[in-house]
Amino acid sequence: MRIGVVVNPIAGMGGRVGLKGTDGKVAEARDRGAERRAPDRAVAALSALYDRAPDTELLTYGGEMGAEEARAAGFDPEIVGEPGEEETSAADTREAVRRLVADGVDLVLFVGGDGTAVDVAETLAESGADVPMLGVPAGVKIYSSVFAVTPKAAGRVAASFDRTEEREVNDIDEEAYRAGEVRAELKAVASVPVAESLQSGKQLGGGTVESLATGVADDAKPGVTYVLGPGSTVGAIKSELGFDGSPLGVDVWRDGEVVARDANEEALLAALGDENVIVVSPIGGQGFVFGRGNHQISPAVIRRSDVEIVASKTKLDGIGVLRADTGDEGVDESLRGWWKVRVGRFERRMLKLS
Question: Do 167 and 189 touch, CB atoms closer than 8 A?
Answer without folding.
Answer: yes
